[in-house]
Amino acid sequence: MENFSVFDIIGPRMTGPSSSHTAGAARLGYIARRIIGAELDRVHFTLYGSFAETGRGHGTDKALIAGILGCEPDDARIRSAYKLARDSGVQVEFTWSDEPVEHPNTVRIEAVDVNGKETEVVGVSVGGGNILITEINHLAVEVTGDYPTLIIQHHDMPGVISDVCRVLAQLGVNIAYMKVFRHGRGDDDAFMCIESDEPVTPDMQQILLRLCPAVRELMVI
After folding, report:
1. Which of 78, 132, 148, 153 might form a disulfide with 199, Cβ 3.0–4.6 angstroms?
2. Could you tell me where the DSSP H helices lie in 100-175?
3. What order do you get walking across the sheet with 105-113 strand by strand?
4. Residue spans of the chain under pLDDT 50
5. What is the DSSP string of 27-81?
6. What CATH number belongs to 149-220?
């Protein structure tokens, strides 16, 4: 007999009719905002598959807007997301695409923050309010948002991984999951995606940058 958790039975806490199309969409927007890490100027959402076909009826557009403005899936402000965006001075646009994609509940989020920095995030809603970020700035990743997540861009050279792990251990951060990848051999840039039991605080980030000179950029989710 298959085992079910209470979460599987009663579903996530949410505002809206669908865990995949509403709660998952809000969470995708919320995690994307954490990745962007700054106040928004404008954002363009491209919806694919079932998101594009039935998203209007399920409020997927409102959920994505509210999420990227900092609302969690159970926030009542999801219903008035367009007004929330106007009041916040954030320009939002949508494209409802019929382009085939691997997963039916897929969204591409192209955001520009108030400093002019562009960030692109692709994610999918996998059901039950759960999500997976599959791409950040054209880099393939696997981020669930279930754990504090640290994404590190660094020079592709020996010893960097051990240096980062050593510093995190000294800071009392326990690594739950880690993936290392790069675009290709000979590419100077490589990346680490680290999910940890403890959050990596801003002070810890500065220590990492100081003690690991090969690290070029940190992104915390």
Report:
1. 148
2. 160-170
3. 91-96, 40-48, 105-113, 118-127, 130-136, 139-143
4. 1-17
5. HHHHHHHHHH-S-EEEEEEEEEHHHHHHHHHHTHHHHHHHHHTT--TT-GGGGGH
6. 3.30.70.260
Q: Which CATH number fits domain 8-143: 1.10.600.10, 3.30.200.210, 3.30.450.180, 3.30.1330.90?
A: 3.30.1330.90
Q: Are 145 and 135 in contact (CB under 8 A)?
A: no
pLDDT value for 9: 31
- DSSP H/E element including 215: strand 215-220
* pLDDT reported for residue 3: 46
Q: Under a CB-based contact definition with an 8 Å cutoff, are residues 53 and 100 in contact?
A: no
Q: Considering only CA atoms, which of 130, 132, 148, 149 is closest in space to residue 140? A: 132
Tokens of 182: 């790069």
pTM: 0.80
Tokens found for residue 137: 């700035």
Indicate the residue type of 100. Answer: P
Kindly calculate the radius of gyration of the chain based on its CA atoms and give it in whole angstroms: 18
